[in-house]
Specification:
CATH topology of the largest domain: Rossmann fold
Pathway: Amino-acid biosynthesis; L-homocysteine biosynthesis; L-homocysteine from S-adenosyl-L-homocysteine: step 1/1
CATH architecture of the largest domain: 3-Layer(aba) Sandwich
Cofactor: NAD(+)
Subcellular location: Cytoplasm
Keywords: Cytoplasm, Hydrolase, NAD, One-carbon metabolism
Radius of gyration: 22 Å
Largest sheet: 8 strands, mixed
Function: May play a key role in the regulation of the intracellular concentration of adenosylhomocysteine.
């Protein structure tokens, strides 16, 4: 086995956590059981850059059981859970991940994946996809296909496609209904506040919460802020349709330049850079708390905060205090990185069950259709999405109606009128 993790002695602790996740991920466990005997991925090398959590471990074990050789690196320098990494090495996964990596160490791990010449590439943020297209085009031509799990990563891959540079088909798992509607909304909505509360132990009730961005992630965060008793929930947006939706969902909408003066807690969820920057820091009240739920640590523009601060200190493990020249103090959580994965454990297993079932099925689909798919970023086939939803309902003992033959014919015909 080739790997680099913090400490293999942590494996028993990691295995216990993985067992907990397995009990709460019935869809993926069913798919894993179905395909462990058939070995549809026998001989296929899978390279994955994902947050190394107990939920990710269940997915990696599913790939191993399906016959694949699996290589894994973390998709964020601070999100790896070292006990999980150790447990996966024991299971036969080549893991290159540990918590607290430098930027150079992070990219070293990605290069190690490339050395294994993966045929299926799973990514969370598109760093591996981008690295392959920038520096390893010889490998790109041998790749069957890839998947991408984040909005940020899909945006990057769409840019590659627009420029005519995409070298293999990619399934945007992020765009599966059973991913973005549940993982992004319910998973991130809950786990973002889990991270904020673990980091600070503040009371959300009575606070003014500002949510930057009203995509599926922002919707979930705003909903949970209201549920936790926030006095006001303010949404900032650049998209007029989403802004209108936020208003009709009962939230206030205003520019960040106005929200900056009144917010107690600011949470970014846009996938863009410098959403909160110098002009906003200069207006914030003393004690403002900043957290990011987007993939990269660029939404809260830290260079501006560093320039404005006369001093800086680490108050708590995931809380950094910036004292500005006028004496105001602003608190940045998790170094501006994904607060739910740095200060907490990421999404609940029940939500990742659907997301990772989509990852697994998308990978099987790529292998089954090797050489037949266009060099594009594609949404997952609807039938796979519906399969995941049906299995999830079944696991929850929920039954639904089915159409009669007459109804099926009715919805397919144009002849029935008034």
């Amino acid at each position: 086995m080739e790997y680099k993790v913090k400490d293999l002695a942590l494996a028993p602790q990691g295995n216990a956590k993985i067992s907990w996740a397995e009990q709460n991920m019935p869809v993926l466990m069913l798919l894993r059981k179905r395909h462990s005997a058939l070995k549809p991925l026998k001989g296929v090398r899978v390279g994955a850059v994902l947050h190394v959590t107990k939920e990710t471990a269940v997915l990696m074990k599913a790939f191993v059981d399906a016959g694949a050789e699996v290589v894994l690196a973390g998709s964020n320098p601070l999100s790896t859970q070292d006990d999980i990494a150790a447990a996966l090495v024991e299971y036969g996964v080549h893991v290159y991940a540990w918590r607290g990596q430098s930027s150079s160490e992070y990219y070293w791990c990605l290069e190690k994946i490339i050395e294994w010449r993966p045929q299926i590439v799973l990514d969370d943020g598109a760093d591996l996809h981008a690295l392959i297209h920038e520096k390893h085009l010889d490998l790109a031509e041998q790749i069957i296909g890839g998947t991408e799990e984040t909005t940020t990563g899909v945006i990057r891959l769409k840019a590659l496609e627009r420029e005519g540079l995409l070298k293999y088909p990619v399934i945007a798992v992020n765009n599966a209904y059973t991913k973005h509607m549940f993982d992004n909304r319910y998973g991130t909505g809950q786990s973002t506040f889990d991270g904020i509360l673990r980091a600070t132990n503040i009371l959300i009730a009575g606070k003014i919460v500002v949510v930057a961005g009203y995509g599926w992630v922002g919707k979930g965060i705003a909903m949970r802020a209201r549920g936790l008793g926030a006095r006001r929930v303010i949404v900032t947006e650049v998209n007029p349709i989403r802004a209108l939706e936020a208003i009709y969902d009962g939230f206030e909408v205003m520019p960040m330049s106005e929200a900056a003066e009144i917010g107690d807690i600011f949470i970014t969820a846009t996938g863009n850079k410098a959403v909160i920057r110098r002009e906003h820091f200069e207006k914030m009240k003393n004690g403002a708390i900043l957290a990011n739920a987007g993939h990269f640590n660029v939404e809260v523009w830290i260079p501006d905060l560093e320039e404005l601060a006369r001093s800086k200190r680490h108050m708590l493990p995931y809380v950094t205090e910036y004292e500005l020249r006028d004496g105001r103090k602003i608190y940045l959580l998790a170094e501006g990185r994904l607060v739910n994965l740095v200060a907490a454990e990421g999404h609940p297993s029940e939500v990742m069950d659907m997301s990772f079932a989509n990852q697994f099925l998308a990978s099987l689909y790529l292998v089954d259709n090797k050489g037949k798919l266009p060099l594009r970023v594609m949404n997952p086939p609807l039938e796979l999405d519906e399969m995941v939803a049906s299995l999830k309902l079944e696991s929850m003992s929920v039954r639904i109606d089915s159409m009669t033959r007459e109804q099926e014919e009715y919805v397919k015909s144009w002849r029935h009128g008034t």
